[in-house]
Amino acid sequence: FMLGLTGTVDQCDWDRLCDDFRPDTGEPLTVRRKDQRRVGYDFNFHVPKSVSLLYGLTRDDRILEAFRDSVRATMEDIETESKARVRVSGKNEDRVTGNLIWGEFTHFTARPVDGLPDPHLHAHCFVFNATFDREEDRWKAGQFGDLKRDAPYFEAVFHSRLARRLEELGLNTQRTAKGWELAGLDPETMDKFSRRTARIEQLASAKNITDPDLKSTLGARTRSSKAAELTMSDLESAWRSRLTDTEAERLEWLANRIGKDTITEDD
């Protein structure tokens, strides 16, 4: 609100922030300016494959709302931990500022494999490299080291929130070796719609890569362009055509559970 921005932001205001200018006045945002400054950081949130699949085939707004609420609540947690460097009066320390500027971009598919993407509900929250220091009454570059270090904690908080909110909708969850999924879908069904992950694992195995960070880099280097010409209706039809009758029935059963046998926040 300090910059006059809320809700949907237009391209001009976004571009000004990228260039380190105030969108409301056009004046420089932060004091220390340099050509090679870091514009910001990407905080991303991904749902389990079963959630992506159920949403992709139902487009139930209650699932999307639970996801977005969990993302925003976790970003607010991250925001409370934000800091800026203090260099006045001979100091060289960090000060908690408790405010950030970010834009949330929600995506519904993974990168395509053989021309067709799989369902993959996720969000990129791009956080600008700026925070307002109230004690010095000015915008400064943020100190993001601790936030990036604590990313696994915030990821766990996000998943805990999302699982709870889906359970409140009547969807049961279950623990897995890598986290959690919605109860009721076979692993084989989810593997069928995880072709991008399978391809990266195949490439990593061929190159003897086991480090998760290196696998992520490999994925970025081998990804295809997104298939913008396909509508969500086109994709839903293509995804449904890959389901067996039994898989389709299980997904229909899950979809019908939404809103039934719900639990409350106090349960």
How many alpha or pi helices?
Answer: 10
Give the overall shape.
elongated
What is the typical, i.e. mean, pLDDT? 87
Which spans of ≥5 residues are poorly predicted at pLDDT below 50? none
Measured between the Cα atoms of the first and last residue, the distance is: 35 Å
Structural class assignment: alpha+beta
> What summary fits the major beta sheet?
3 strands, antiparallel
| Number of separate strands | 10
Radius of gyration: 21 Å
Strand order of the largest sheet: 1-5-4
Strand content: 15-25%
Q: What is the share of helical residues?
A: 40-55%
SSE succession: HEHHEEEEEEEHHEEHHHHH
What does this molecule look like?
A hairpin with a 6-residue loop joins strand 2 and strand 3. The two termini are 35 Å apart. The chain has a three-stranded antiparallel sheet, covered by helices on one side. The chain has helices at 11-18, 49-58, 61-80, 145-149, 151-168, 187-192, 195-206, 212-222, 232-241, 245-257; strands at residues 40-46, 83-86, 93-96, 102-109, 119-128, 131-133, 138-140, 142-143, 173-176, 179-182. The model has no long low-confidence stretch (mean pLDDT 87). It is α+β, with helices and mostly antiparallel strands and 267 residues long. 42% of the residues lie in helices and 18% in strands. Helix 3 runs antiparallel to helix 5 and helix 7 crosses helix 8 (212-222). The chain has a domain at 40-83 and 110-121 and 143-257. It has ten helices and ten strands.
